[in-house]
Each structure stands twice: as structure tokens, then as C-alpha cells.
Amino acid sequence: MFPNDRKPALIFVTPSHQFPMGGTLSVKRRLELVEFARKNGCFILEDDYDSEFTYEGFPSNSLFEFDTEHVIYAGTFSKIMFPSLRLGYLVVPNELVLQIRKWKRLSDHHSNSIYQLALMRFIESGDLERHIHRMKRVYKKRRDNLLSLLQVYFGEKVKIYGFNAGMHIVAEFEDIVFTEEIIQHLLKCGIYVVPVEKHSILKGNHSNQIILGYAQLDYEDMVKGLEILKTRLNYS
Ligand SMILES: Cc1ncc(COP(=O)(O)O)c(C=O)c1O
């Protein structure tokens, strides 16, 4: 629940798809969070970085839809387009507009104008929407492939989290600790996996879980990678 003894100035959340475990905040919890911000006079920064790629059902209402005075909504083109574009956007409460414009100017003066113009045309022509629909089909297929291959290779020994949205899942393995040695070995074999531990504040609770990104992988790559993973984890 919410802390009674603290009065934050800002709460940072990823309610559509928590990174890395992939949890989604229910509508009830969203309303409670907004209520907390109202009562305590603080702002919520809603980082909605990949809800365009939601594969089951529909994305929930954003926090910003519930409260336009306490929520700052942040979106990015890093996932729907590509990260090196370095373009994102904020939808902010009226009272913050001038201040945030000033901070943006101070932080990097402005984002690349040509990229912004090109993106504007891409959006206006309807191509961005078509691109998202197409990529959603592609990523969903890759996700489905990965989920079924994990079942084939690891069966009951693997538990999957966070597969409803985004471009990665978390795989939890029975009786395994993903040490730096295992991670480095996998890297040498051409497999880049990130341990969930790397992202946790309290260490020791996620040592048997890894993040598996699938956006770029075709079926054959997945098969190759999972075979190596299975061998390295000594699963028969
Ligand atoms: C939690 C989270 N927020 C935001 C982003 C996007 O960041 P940026 O727009 O700086 O590329 C990512 C990218 O992976 C992310 O994982």
C-alpha cells in the first residue's frame, strides 16, 4: 500500500507494463494512486513506453486520463520506431507547461528538427499507425514463437512473466542462479540475456530470472539460443 509517513514530490511509474517484470497496474490501483497524488499534492510521472504493443486485450486507461492536473504522461518513439531517433513526448498539466519547456531547453536546447519534421509527416500520412499495426503482428508472432519454444525446451521448469505486452518477457528457471559467469558464458556463445537482478533494488529475490528480448529474433535464432541455454543450464 502507500506509505503514510512520506510525502513524495514525484512518483515515477510504468503502469502499462512495469519494467522488467511486465506487471500491469489494475484500474483500481490506478485510481488509488491518482487519489494518493491528489491528497498529497504531488505529481505522478507516467512512463508509458510500450503500451502500443499490447497483445492481449486493450491497454488500460492511462493515469493521465484519470487526472490531468497531477499526472505527467511520457511517451517515446524508441519502441514504436527505433531508439536512435531520440524522440519522445510529454503531456503535462497546464501549470507545468512553461516550467517543463524551460527545463527541456536547458537540458538539450531542442530535439533534432529534421527528425521531428520527418516524423510529423510519417504520422500525418497515417504511416505510423500502419507501421504500429504491422509491427504488432510481427512482434506477437515472435513472442508466441518464444513462448512455445520455451515450453518445448524447458516445460514445467520455466515460468514466464510479463508476456502481455512489449518486446521482452521474463523467464524464471527452477534451481538456477544466473551468476555473472553464466551470463558471460552465454554472451560468448552469442546470447545476450539480462538478469532481472541487475534491475532490482533489493538483491537476492530474482536471481533465477532473466529478461529475454524477442523483437529482433526469428524462429531459427530462438531455437539456436534456447538450445545453448538448455545445455548451459544442464537441463536434460
Ligand atoms: C522503462 C522505460 N522507459 C522508457 C524507455 C524509453 O526510453 P527512451 O525514450 O529514452 O529511449 C524505455 C526503453 O527501453 C524503458 O525501458
Helix content: 25-40%
What would the CATH topology of the largest domain be?
Aspartate Aminotransferase, domain 2
Which class do the helix and strand fractions yield? alpha/beta
Overall body shape: globular
Q: What is the CATH first-level class name of the largest domain?
A: Alpha Beta
**Major sheet, described briefly?**
4 strands, mixed
* C-alpha termini separation: 42 Å
SS element count, helices: 7
Rg from alpha-carbon coordinates: 20 Å
Q: What order do the helices and strands follow? A: EHEHEEHHHEEHEEH
- What percentage of the residues does DSSP assign to strands (E)? 15-25%
The ligands bound in this entry are: pyridoxal-5'-phosphate
Question: What's the number of structural domains?
Answer: 2
Mean pLDDT: 95
Report on the architecture of this protein.
- It is a single chain.
- This protein is an alpha/beta fold.
- Helix content is 39%, strand content 15%.
- The chain is built from seven helices and eight strands, in the order βαβαββαααββαββα.
- It has helices spanning 27-40, 63-66, 97-108, 113-124, 127-154, 180-188, 219-232, and strands spanning 10-13, 43-47, 71-76, 88-91, 158-161, 168-173, 194-195, 209-213.
- The strands form two sheets. Strands 1-2-3-4 form a four-stranded mixed beta sheet, covered by helices on one side. A four-stranded antiparallel beta sheet has the order 5-6-8-7, with helices on one face.
- α5 (127-154) packs parallel to α7.
- The protein is globular, with a radius of gyration of 20 Å.
- The site of pyridoxal-5'-phosphate has 8 residues, from loops.
- Pyridoxal-5'-phosphate binds at residues 14, 19, 47, 49, 76, 78, 83, 88.
